[in-house]
Amino acid sequence: MVYGPAAAPQWAQADKAVDFFDVKGDIEALLAPRKATFVAAEHPAMHPGRCAAVQLDGATIGHIGELHPKWRQGYELPQAPVLFELDLAAVQKRELPAAQGVPRQQLIQRDLALVVADKVTHDALMGTLRDDPLVRAAWLFDVYKPAQPTADIAAGERSLAVRLELLDDSSTLTEERIDAAVVSAVARVQAAHGARLRA
Question: Which of 125, 123, 127, 105 is nearest to 115 (CA)?
Fold first, then answer.
C-alpha cells in the first residue's frame, strides 16, 4: 500500500500525491524484463472504477487500484491510498536473459500525435502500433486533453504523443521504408481503434 507524497519536497516541482500510475510503474519495474498488462477489473478491497488486474502472458497474477471508498471513509483518509497484491510465485519466476548482439544498423525514431477516444486503452493502442517487424518499440510520452473541445479534439477524445522506434537488423532503413512503416502504423490504429493523426 502506498500513501502520501510521490517524492520528497523540493523547490523544482510542486508537491504531488502518489497515484495509480506511480505504483503501476513500480510493478512494471518489479516484473521487468517481463511485460505486464493492466486490464480493468474489480476487487473487493479496491475502488470499483479504479482497479486493474495485473496480467503476465494472459494470466492474472494480481490486482492494483485505489482503496475502496468505504475503507477510506472508515479510516478518515484525506486521499485514497493505492494498493496492489501480486502472486509471489509469479513474481519470483524468472527466465535467464538471452544475449543479443549490438545492432549494426541505426535505430530510427518517429513521433506521432494520435487523437483517440477516451475508451481506447494504452495497451491496446501500443500493441497495435508494435504489430510490425520494423517497429521495435512504441511508447507514450505525453497526453493532452483540452478543458473544452477544440477543432481537432472533440469531447470524449484525447491526444496521445507516441514515439516509434524502427529498426531492420539486415539493412539500413531508407526514408521510403520509414515513411511506409509510419503510414502503416497509423492505418493499423485507425482501423483498430478509430485513431487519427492530430492536425
Answer: 125
Residue whose C-alpha is closest to residue 36's, from 67, 66, 59, 65: 59
Residue pair 118/156 in contact (Cβ under 8 Å)? The answer is yes
Give the three-state DSSP class for 20. helix
pLDDT per residue as tens digits for the range 135-173: 999 999 999 999 898 888 999 999 999 999 999 988 888
User: What are the distances in angstroms from CA 197 to CA 40, 116, 119, 133?
Assistant: 26, 9, 17, 22
Compute and round to an integer the Cα radius of gyration of the chain.
20
**DSSP one-letter string for 96-116:** PPPP-PPPSSPPEEEEEEEEE
Neighbours of 44 (CB within 10 A): 8
Would you say 171 and 105 are in contact if contact means Cβ atoms under 8 Å apart?
yes
CA dist 190 and 113 (Å) reads 13
Task: Give Cα 55 distance to the centre of its chain.
Answer: 13
Residue with cell string 510493478 = 27
Threshold 0.85, pTM exceeds: no
